[in-house]
Amino acid sequence: MEENIGLLLDIAKDSMKKGIQHFESELSKIRAGKATPDLLNGIMVDYYGSPTPVHQVANVNIVDVRTLSLQPWEKNMLQPIEKAIMAANIGITPQNDGTQIRLFLPPLTEERRKELVKRVYAEGENAKVVIRNYRREAMDQIKKEQKDGLSKDAAKEAEDEIQNITDSYITAIDKHCAGKEKEIMVV
């Protein structure tokens, strides 16, 4: 019985950790006025008939704070990369000079910054829901173990441990949101 609880706690921790990692990857896609290659995550280019991430068909460099440069491995990939960036609707128009593509990030307005902060906190709420769902699943499993013969004290102890793990991850999400808000609001 006790080893089942230990395993259950490990599974809950791993699931919550994956939820946090997904949240962090979503946060990296929200631009804070600085050029970062993460802005291109999730953009797929048609590479000879198969969808391929931009990072696998071009070298992505940060030229300066507001400029990204994409140097395709093959010159004939300029047009497909440009089309993929336009189709992704990331709010940036690619500039193709025949050898490379440049992405110039416009400066953020105060209104746009506030919208981005709202989006950050919305992502934070989504992540909290995911963490709470993992907590609920773990709690249900503990109740099931209790019906199968786990003592009340051991069940209570396991539930407390699950709640402590959940609280630590919720706190981490709040810290990430506050940090991203600070990053976005800096002019």
Describe the secondary-structure layout.
Layout: H1 2-28, E1 44-47, E2 50-53, E3 58-64, E4 67-72, H2 78-88, E5 94-96, E6 101-104, H3 110-147, H4 152-185
Antiparallel strand pairs: 1-2, 3-4, 4-6, 5-6
Helix pairs in contact: 1-3, 1-4, 3-4
Written overview of the protein:
The chain is of the alpha+beta class. It folds into two domains: about 100 residues, Ribosome-recycling factor (Topoisomerase I, Chain A, domain 4, Orthogonal Bundle), CATH 1.10.132.20; about 70 residues, Gyrase A, domain 2. Helices cover about 60% and strands about 15% of the residues. It has a four-stranded antiparallel beta sheet with strand order 3-4-6-5, covered by helices on one side. Strands 1-2 form a two-stranded antiparallel sheet. Strand 3 and strand 4 form a beta hairpin. The radius of gyration is 22 Å and the shape is elongated. The chain starts with a helix and ends with a helix. The relative contact order is 0.17.
**Elements, N to C (H/E):** HEEEEHEEHH
* Overall 3D form: elongated
Largest sheet: 4 strands, antiparallel
Mean pLDDT: 87
Q: Radius of gyration over alpha carbons?
A: 22 Å
CATH superfamily (homologous) name of the largest domain: Ribosome-recycling factor
Number of helices: 4
Estimate what percentage of residues fall within beta strands: 5-15%
Tell me what the CATH architecture of the largest domain is: Orthogonal Bundle
Terminal-residue CA separation? 56 Å
CATH topology of the largest domain: Topoisomerase I, Chain A, domain 4
Structural class category: alpha+beta
In what order do the strands lie side by side in the largest sheet? 3-4-6-5
Percent of residues in helices: 55-70%
* Number of E-state strands: 6
Instruction: Tally the structural domains.
Output: 2
Q: What is the CATH class name of the largest domain?
A: Mainly Alpha
Quaternary state of this entry equals: single chain
Instruction: Give start-end ranges of low-pLDDT stretches.
Output: none
